[in-house]
């Protein structure tokens, strides 16, 4: 007999980078599941648009303007989410930045920003969110989830991407250790590693947008993880464009 998906209706989810792309798709997917949403991003107008789209689906959506590089802002966002939405059950670490450059000519500022946003903020936000998620998993809610939107660059390297690959390999390692810490408490921990995705970050790719992974594809995987049966946990998932060679 096939295990049944678990309902997450009424749960509270916090999503970073929710103003566009994968983050917006994740917000809409969880809105359709009946979640209450805390949406983080820096672009106020675009973030408010995401919140409005979620509200049209019947979801409570709290837009929180937040620069992930500011530690106090992260703590304040988690606190507002917990207080105003009544807890925190699902964390989607989605926001990320990309700066290219070889190991010998990459710009230092770009490297710093990738480390700050792609890795340090992810670790800090997860640390802040986990006490709330664990409390929910131990209480009436009975489950929780932390989903890391990583990249294929976290499982394979390429010339000119050493800094980005380093941060995404770091995310994947961190996520695996988080599962070691909280998996036994019933919290799902999963890392999603898509290839080229049809977002602003993929605009310079030679892959046609219609042949890329779509933001909604990644959001559907995130939704599956959040509703996955309690008996197992899909920890690391790679997602390839269907019609692009593996060596892309």
Query: Can you count the helices?
Result: 6
- What gyration radius follows from the Cα positions, in whole Å? 17 Å
Q: Average pLDDT across residues?
A: 93
Name the poorly predicted regions: none
Main β-sheet, in a few words? 7 strands, parallel
Key features of this structure:
single chain; 248 residues; alpha/beta; seven-stranded parallel β-sheet; 6 helices; 7 strands
Could you please describe the fold and organization of this structure?
This protein is an alpha/beta fold. It is built from six helices and seven strands. The protein has helices spanning 21-32, 44-56, 71-85, 108-138, 162-182, 215-226; strands at 12-16, 36-41, 61-65, 90-93, 144-149, 187-194, 236-239. A seven-stranded parallel β-sheet has the order 3-2-1-4-5-6-7, sandwiched between helices. β5 (144-149), α5 and β6 form a beta-alpha-beta unit.
Chart the SSEs and their pairings.
Layout: E1 12-16, H1 21-32, E2 36-41, H2 44-56, E3 61-65, H3 71-85, E4 90-93, H4 108-138, E5 144-149, H5 162-182, E6 187-194, H6 215-226, E7 236-239
Parallel strand pairs: 1-2, 1-4, 2-3, 4-5, 5-6, 6-7
């Amino acid at each position: 007999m096939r295990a049944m998906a678990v309902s997450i209706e009424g749960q509270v989810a916090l999503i970073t980078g929710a103003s566009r792309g994968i983050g917006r798709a994740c917000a809409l997917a969880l809105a359709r599941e009946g979640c209450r949403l805390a949406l983080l991003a820096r672009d106020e107008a675009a973030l408010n648009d995401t919140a409005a789209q979620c509200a049209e689906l019947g979801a409570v959506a709290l837009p929180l303007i937040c620069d992930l590089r500011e530690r106090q802002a992260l703590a304040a966002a988690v606190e507002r989410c917990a207080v105003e939405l009544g807890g925190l059950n699902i964390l989607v670490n989605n926001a990320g930045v990309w700066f290219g450059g070889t190991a010998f000519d990459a710009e230092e500022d770009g490297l710093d920003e990738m480390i700050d946003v792609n890795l340090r903020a992810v670790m800090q936000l997860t640390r802040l969110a986990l006490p709330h998620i664990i409390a929910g998993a131990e209480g009436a809610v009975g489950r929780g989830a932390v989903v890391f939107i990583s990249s294929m660059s976290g499982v394979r390297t390429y010339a000119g991407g050493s800094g980005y690959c380093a941060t995404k390999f770091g995310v994947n390692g961190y996520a695996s250790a988080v599962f070691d810490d909280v998996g036994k408490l019933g919290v799902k921990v999963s890392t999603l590693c898509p290839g080229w995705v049809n977002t602003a970050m993929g605009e310079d790719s030679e892959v046609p947008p219609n042949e890329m992974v779509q933001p909604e594809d990644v959001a559907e995987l995130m939704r599956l993880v959040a509703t996955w049966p309690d008996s197992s946990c899909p920890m690391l998932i790679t997602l390839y464009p269907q019609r692009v060679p593996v060596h892309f």
